[in-house]
Amino acid sequence: MERPLSVSDVTQAVKQTLEMQFPPMWVAGELTSFSQPSSGHRYFTLSDPQSQLRCVMWRSRSITGFRPTAGMAVLAQGQLTVYERRGEYQFNVSQLLPAGVGQQLIAYEKLKKKLSEEGLFDEDQKRPLPEYPRTIGVVTSRTGAAFRDILDVLERRFPAIRIVLRPALVQGLDAPEDIAQGIADLNDFGEVDVLIVGRGGGSAEDLAAFNDETVVRAVADSEIPVISAVGHEIDISLSDLTADVRAPTPSAAAEIAVRDVLEVREHVGRLTLRTREAMQRLLDENKDLIEMHESSYGMRRLSDLIFQNAQHVDELHRDLYALIRRLFESRLADYHRMTGKLGSLSPLSVLARGFGLVQRKDGSVVSDAGVLTHREHLHIRFAKGEATCRVEKIKR
Amino acid sequence: MPKKKTADPTFEEALKQLETAVGRLEEGALPLSVALKVFEEGLKASNQCRSLLEDARQQVEVLIRDSDGEFELVSIDSNGEGFADE
Predict the structure, then answer these.
(1) Is A314 part of any domain?
(2) Domain range for residue A130?
(3) CATH of the domain at A18
(4) Cross-chain CB nearest to B46 (options A143, A185, A316)
(5) Same-domain status, A179 and A278
(6) Which pTM does this prediction carry?
(7) B31 touches chain A (CB under 8 A)
(8) Over chain B (86 residues), what is each successive 10-residue block's mean pLDDT?
(9) Nearest C-alpha of chain B: how many angstroms from A229?
(10) Which of 200-259 (A) contact B at CB < 8 A?
(11) Which residues pair with A46 in a beta bridge?
(12) Within 13 A of A348's CA, how many CA atoms are on the CB side?
């Protein structure tokens, strides 16, 4: 006879086999004999007409949203195990939900898994948002606070923008179809650079449309980048996971969609300053050439710029000053330093420093003494005024 | 923004032109005549950027698709009128 096994050996073997054979799962049944002694752990039985399943749910697991009572149809998620002291198998429950809610959750998780496997949530599916959208498409309720919030933020941050709303039902049975069609409509419409799809905060059920496969697929299929804006603190909807960018609220979505116009203006201003500084450096580097009038085309362009753009440059200068003053009082000193330098760097100062523009009667700029004829009249343009001179001696 | 004529650059295009001008000028080594041209283009682009930022106002429209699939746009007042009544 073989050596007998101990009771513990058998129980351990059964326990291991059971736990390996049954991964965590959902079980539907009727709740019977629910009890919660002072330890805080819950002991109950799940039943159907044929069988019963003993369950334990530890105190550390919370039951939210309902009070379990006998007779209730529920769904329990957990792991089969063996209670060794009694040699009984039992279901170790991690999550207990009313049947309806549980069905939804199971459907949600199933859909999430399916879409995830299809790659809808993959990071490499995310498209970058346009830096400077001209038109923003919005799919939400026309009367809800969400749209109002979006308009307010856009008006404040970047008023120079066009907003096209495709009104959509955001709750109720028809909502998923309407939202999905709205996304498709704005894609067909074609003049939209970025989409905001969402609604203001609501309960988990209010957000159901954004977990609907139809909506999720419409977000995924959108040619236009999508910012999801489903205002809910806790739950992340499947639309959120699929969208190119997820915003916690409609206001936040609008913030993400556009840059702050003041920053943009400052950016333009700084680029403009840099353009002029770089130009001036080039003029300085080439001043010998200019002095010798060796670049007649350049000189013509230069005089053109000086006389025709001076006013424009001054305007730019003024506007920029006003802008930066408004924006960054604290950076004013910095700015004064910069504008001080610019004054001396203005193209006008090339003439102001004593260079002159020499032209023949026909207006051509002289860069080569070889073209001149004896006693010919030449015009010289100074920073201030001009003079007519006569050629007395030519050195080629 | 009103529907753009093809000749007018968008803000993004104008900004790109300005950035290109800065880049080319800062690189140096351009013949003066070319540099002046680039400089002038940069100023023009800067001016376009500015007017695109300043001139346009928020424009809000509602997209309606009729049963034939044709689109219609209805302007609404961004200050709220025309909102409450569906």
Answers:
(1) yes
(2) 126-257
(3) 2.40.50.140
(4) A316
(5) no
(6) 0.63
(7) yes
(8) 59 91 84 80 88 82 87 76 44
(9) 19
(10) none
(11) A31, A53
(12) 14
